[in-house]
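Board notes (copied after class):
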Amino acid sequence: MPRFNRYLIALAVVLSAASPGAPSDTAYFVPTHRLPGIGSARQPLTDETLAARTEAMIQSQTFGIMREPLAEQGAARIWSSGLQRLFHEAERRTGFPASTLQAMAFIESWGVASAVSPAGPRGIMQMSEATGKRIGLRIVYSTRRRTVKTQVTVRNKHGKLVTRTKRHKETYTAMVRDDRLKPEKAIPAAAEYLAGMEQRYGGRDWAIWAYHCGEGCISEFKTVARNAGLDDSASVAKVFFSCSPVWNRELSQAIHAQMERDYSPTYWFRVMRAEQLLRMYLEDPIEFHDLVEQYKYAASPTQRAPDRLAAWLKPQDLIFQTSDHIKGEDGSKLVAAPDDPEFFGYRLGLSGGVDGDNWRAKAMPSTIGTMAYIAFETRRLYAEMRPDDAFVPLDVTALVVPTGDSPPSNLQGTRLPDHASGQVFDLSLSSLPPGEEECLQFVLDDLGWNGSLGFIEDPAAKQTMHIGCSPSSRDFFAQIYQEAQTAWQDRHTPPTTVPAVAQ
């Protein structure tokens, strides 16, 4: 388990013991061990919790960077002597750190000077044409003429239709100079642009976000943050983690809208992780290469992994081949999920049922713990949002499924049948009240940003979420399972009666 994840889990224990959570006599399962700042625990957000959430968010960006097949080549390109000279000269002139510039070039273009985005940005720093011109880069077009041929149908002298080729002149516009494609022009211009925004917005993190989102976008966010009670000195991380669907709802909706558009609110975190990874490539290339292998898409190594689960689960994890194999499993790997909807907040709505054939109700302990933890965080957030409304248990529609069966999630393409690992489960959102569904989606996102969870909506079964915890979080969620199992056994153990003493 990575060092930071061990720290985060240890911090979770300390914070849960020190902070007031749900009451101990609640009618539903409340784990002792909790992750800091998740769901309703974002309010209030202490400095210690903010620091933990920020570092976890930075680490969670590893997937988005290292799943790219070009990551290793890109790191080598960024560290080339020619580019290093440009980055450090830009820092000398503007004061903006070379390490941050190279991290941005790394994730923007993998160091390719001629990179072109389908959306329009170009060059090593992937600037739009409007931004490039505004910061002094020359982008020049020329009007030209060319001869084009077209096929036309005409009648010949005999009155028959025939096809003829006609030539005519056509005017067109061609780009004859684009400084965005010249690193010696683009890198210093980007550094000057970023340094100016750092002064204007009062923070390097805001300048980096503005580089991706645009200055108009940042001005709007600054206004929304002030409306939420945050002052102008608040960091990007503070603004990001201060929102929830219960408190600071306008801010939460603004961040959600930007995440749906282009994930720009996570850009600063991604740049920070890129800095760390580039440093790793230089100082410990073996560790960097191990990460490349770890995040390689096993189902199709030349493509980037489509989601975290596809990167986390490997062919060797698919160990349950048949239902008989699952039925005969001796309990050393799979465990049965406790079925108590009111207490745990989830119900087992599995295909084929669970009575008399309960192999479908099994999964790895960490998987069951993940289910229980998601239900707990969703329920307590929903209680803050709708204190008078009953909580509808989450509908678990699949746990372990053998590779010989068609996966009930029916995910398309070359994806591995990851239900056969016992590490994933499916939740149906179709029967949830809208407010509860919003809370669930927020908790899933929160655990994903924390690096603890991966999930994807099943394209073949809309409103079905395919979910699994990260390899580094499995020990924590297995601990939650142990707590849940103990609580469930205590709940179903009849109280001991003491015989009356004869008078």
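Comment from the instructor: Residues 13-25, 406-410 have pLDDT under 50 and may be disordered. Strands lie at 139-155, 161-178, 335-336, 346-348, 362-363, 394-398, 424-428, 453-457, 464-469.
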